[in-house]
Amino acid sequence: MVWGEKGPEPVMTDTLFKGKTVAFFGVPGAFTPKCSEAHLPGFVQNADALKAKGVDAIVCTAVNDVFVMHAWGKDQGVGDKVVMVADGDAAFCKAAGLEFDLTGKGLGLRNQRFAMVVEDGVVKSMAIDPPGAFEKTSAEAVLAGL
Predict the structure, then answer these.
(1) Which residues are identified as catalytic?
(2) pLDDT score at 104
């Protein structure tokens, strides 16, 4: 789900990826420390550099509802630089094998921290950071790989 002009709207992967080069990244959760202090801000700050290297869109996803993702995007000042996609019931992260179970920590099922470059619906590169780490999935790492 994404936040549209009239509120929540469903979005399909074809809409996000078809005919485009997309920097697509996932975080364990909106408003969480590393995600809010470094991961999302890095993509906002590097949006122009990514686009100069051929990226048509930057998309962020998390296993949060669309209201939370919309509020987090506003809080982080993403504007039109990053599309905030809610994977509220973890359908995408399960289908992609990117789930991370934090049930014992009170957070439930989440995304692993990942970043990929998708060209016309085909994953061209992908990185996953292990729990607690933040290196391979940063905007700077994606930019270096383009």
Answers:
(1) 35
(2) 84
